[in-house]
Amino acid sequence: MSLIEPRTLQGFRDYPPALMIPRERVLQTARAVYRSYGYSPIDTPALELAEVLLGKGGGENDRIVYRFKDHGDRDVAMRFDLTVPFARFAAVHVPQLGKPFKRYAMGPVWRGERPGQGRYREFWQCDFDTIGTTSNASDIEVALVISDLFTALEIPNVQIRVNNRLLLNGLLESIGVADKAVPLLRCLDKLAKIGRDKVIDEMVKEAAVTAEQAGKVLDLCAATGTNDDILAKAEASFDGPPNEKAREGLARLRELLAVAQTAGVPDGRIRIDLSIARGLDYYTGTIYETFLTDLPGIGSVCSGGRYDNLASLYTKDVLPGVGASLGVDRLIAAMEELKHPWMTGGITPAQVLVLNFDSQYLGHYQRVARALRAAGVGVEVYPEVKRVKAQFEYADKRGFRVALIAGGDEFAAGVWKVKDMAKREEASVPEADVPAKVLAALG
Amino acid sequence: MSLIEPRTLQGFRDYPPALMIPRERVLQTARAVYRSYGYSPIDTPALELAEVLLGKGGGENDRIVYRFKDHGDRDVAMRFDLTVPFARFAAVHVPQLGKPFKRYAMGPVWRGERPGQGRYREFWQCDFDTIGTTSNASDIEVALVISDLFTALEIPNVQIRVNNRLLLNGLLESIGVADKAVPLLRCLDKLAKIGRDKVIDEMVKEAAVTAEQAGKVLDLCAATGTNDDILAKAEASFDGPPNEKAREGLARLRELLAVAQTAGVPDGRIRIDLSIARGLDYYTGTIYETFLTDLPGIGSVCSGGRYDNLASLYTKDVLPGVGASLGVDRLIAAMEELKHPWMTGGITPAQVLVLNFDSQYLGHYQRVARALRAAGVGVEVYPEVKRVKAQFEYADKRGFRVALIAGGDEFAAGVWKVKDMAKREEASVPEADVPAKVLAALG
C-alpha cells in the first residue's frame, strides 16, 4: 500500500510538546489572571451561519473567511475572530446573564490570508471584555489586568501604552474637522518614520486640513515627557479650556493613572501615548497597546480599547464595553527570542522519571509515583525494562530533572536512589524520605 | 437597519459560564492528571488536506466530515477526531521525539451527523496515549490514569471495566473460527437484552458457527464472579491449556490487577469484563470502558484500548500504542444529572465581590483586591457606583460567596466589612485582617 505524505496544510502547523508546553502555560496564566478579576469563561462554535458571522458583508472579512456549504446546504463560515461571535453571544445571553457582564474567551480562529514569517492561517486569540457599562472603572481594570498578566507571565519589562480617543475627537471638533479623524490618524502613524513636518504636509494633502489644524493635531498626539507632562500639553493644545469630550478623555486618563498607582501597579509600567490609535472605526474611548521593552520591534502583544456598542448587528440593546486581547502566538515567538525561562524547559510536563529495572517492581514504582503525584510532582514510570544507559538517555533527552532508581538491592534495603540529572548527583534515601528529597532536588 | 437573528448553527451550541466553568474545570483536571503521568501536550490543526485526513476514503468518515475547497482550491476537511491527526503527527514528529512517546490532546472535533439529545456536531475530545512500546506497563498505566482522573474529578463511584482481545482471539483460534470475531461480538452485545440462549441462536445464524462454538465464546465472554473467578473461568473455557495468545491476554490482565492493587488503586474500581469489545477493527489488546456506578445508563465516559499500529497510512515505522479518551460532553451531562458539586456553583470564577460606594475609593478597592488575588482569591470590583441593594442582587445572582464593603465610615476607621453571602453574616475587621477573614469565610 502506498503511503500518504503526512503533511500539514499550507499556513497551518503542528504544536509538538516544545511549543505546546509553553502555550498551555501562557494560556493557563492568562486564564488565572482573567478569572482572578471575575471575568467568566465562555465559548462559541467554530462554525456559524455565514450570514450571522459576516453580517451585511462586503468587508475585508468576506475575503479571508473559510466559507462553505455544510451537509444541509447551509452557507457556513469558520470564525475569524472571537469578537463577532461574542457580539452574537451577547445578544442571546446577556438578557439572562445581566449587566455588567465580564467574559474571557480563548480559542483558535481561522483566516485564509497569505501566511508568512510567524503568521499562520490558524492562530489563537485570548480576549477579555467587560460589557454593559460605560464606567471608567472597567477601563482602568483592563490596564490592571494587563499589568498583572505580564507579571504572572514573568515578563516584568513591559510598557502599557494608553490613549483615549475622546481627546483627539474633542480637539478635532473644536477646530472644526471632526470628520477627518481617520485620514489624520493614518498620516500620524508615519510620525516616527518621516517626522513632524512631513506628517503635516501629508495631513494637508490627504485629510484636506490646514497646516495650522494639522499642527494642533500633532501638538496633541505627539506630546512627550512624563505622563503628567503629556496630559498638560494635550490640554494646552486647545485654544482655551478643552471641550466636554476632551475633558472627559483627560479625566478618564488621569483617573486611570491615579487608581493604578494606588492599586500598586509598578511605576513606569503605564505610559500615556496619545499617538496610538488602533481600530479606527471601532474603538471610541480608551485604547491600550502593550510593548515588551526588551523587544519593542515586534509590536503590541496585548491590545484593546473601549467601544460604544458591541452587538448592534444583532440586538437593539446597546452594549458598550471595554477589553483587550493577548496575542498568544506573537508573545510566544517573542518569549522564544528573549530566551524566556518557560521556553527553555524540557519537553516533558513531568519532572521525575522512575527507571524500570524489572517488571516485578512495577506496582511499587507506580505506588511511589502516585504518592509523588499526590504531592503535586509529575512522575513518569519508564514503561520498558531496558538498559539503564538507554533510560538515562531518554531522561536527558526529554528534560527530566530527577531520576528515581530502585532495583533488587534497593528493595532489599528499603531505599531508593534519587538522582539529580543536572548535577549528576545521586543519594540513597529510605522510601519514606523520597518525596522530601525529590522536592528538595526540584527546588 | 434590520437586525440579524443571533442564532447558532443547527447542531452547535454556545457555552455560557454555567457550562463553561465546569468544562474548564474538567479539562484542567484531566490535563493535570495526564501531565502528572508524563503525557506531553500536543495540538494539530483543525483543518487538514482531505486526502491526508480521510486516507483512501470510502469509510463512514467521508459522510460526516466537513469538507470544502479553501482559498487555494485545495480539498480540505475539518478534523473529526484527534486520532487520525495524531497518527499523521506521529509519522512526522516521532523520529525526532523518540520512543516511547506519551501525548495528550484536547480540543473540538466536528462531525456533520444528525444532532440529538446531548449530541452536537462540535464536541470536545480529550485523549491520552503512549506509543512506540508494546509493554504492558503502558496498558496498566492507562487504568491508573483513569482511576486517578475520576478521583481528581471527585467522582469516586466509577467502575473501570477491562478486557483483553487476545483472550477472545486466542479462543477463536483454538476452536477454528478466528475470522468470526466481528459478527460474534456483534451478537454478544445483545447478551444483556436477549439472554444467553438467544445470543447462541444469533451467533449460529449470523456468524455461521456451531452452537458448541458459540457456547464456548459465551463461557469466556460472559463469565461472572470476582476478577479472579472470571479469569479462572476464562482459562477453563479452553479445551486444555490456553494457547499462547490467550495466555498472553490472561497474563496481561493479571499483571494489571496486581500492579493496580500494589499501586493503591481503590479496591473494586477495576473490574475484568470479558464482554466489552469496542473498536472492533482497531483495538487488538487491552480494552477499557469506564462506567459511573450512580448512572450506568449513560454508557462509558472514558474508553480506549491497545492498538497494533497507529500510523500505517503515513509511515512504515510501526507504532503500537495504548490510550483512552475522556468523553467530556457526556461526562458533564452526567455530572449535571448527578448534581455534582462542580455543577452547582455560581457563574462567576471569582468568589469575592468588592462593592463600589464612591469612585474616589476605586484605587483602594483595587489595591485590596490585588492583595487578595495575589493570595489566590478571585476578586471582582463592581464597576459602577450603584445602590447597595442592586450590588448585592448582582452578587447573589452571580454566586459570589463573600462581599467586601468599605465606604466613608470604614475608610475613616481603617476597617472593612466582610459579608458571608450565604450566611448573611457581616463582620468589621481591620484592613490587614481582610485576607485571613475572607479565606476563613471561603473555607
Brief descriptors of the model:
5-stranded mixed β-sheet; homodimer; 16 strands; Rossmann fold; BirA Bifunctional Protein, domain 2; alpha+beta; 16 helices; elongated
Description:
The structure is a homodimer of 443-residue chains. The first copy, chain A, has 443 residues and is an alpha+beta fold. Chain A has 3 domains: 8-155 and 319-345, BirA Bifunctional Protein, domain 2, CATH 3.30.930.10; 158-292, Bira Bifunctional Protein, Domain 2 (BirA Bifunctional Protein, domain 2, 2-Layer Sandwich), CATH 3.30.930.10; 352-442, Anticodon-binding domain (Rossmann fold), CATH 3.40.50.800. Helices cover 42% and strands 19% of the residues of chain A. Chain A has 16 helices and 16 strands. Chain A has helices at 17-36, 50-54, 60-64, 83-97, 136-152, 165-174, 181-188, 191-206, 211-221, 227-236, 244-263, 328-337, 362-374, 388-398, 408-413, 434-442; strands spanning 40-41, 47-49, 67-69, 75-78, 101-110, 122-131, 158-164, 270-272, 283-292, 302-307, 321-326, 352-354, 379-381, 402-405, 415-420, 425-430. In chain A, α1 (17-36) packs antiparallel against α5 (136-152), α5 (136-152) packs across α11 (244-263) and α8 (191-206) packs antiparallel against α9. Chains A and B meet through α1, β1, β2, α4 and β5 of A and α1, β1, β2, α4 and β5 of B.
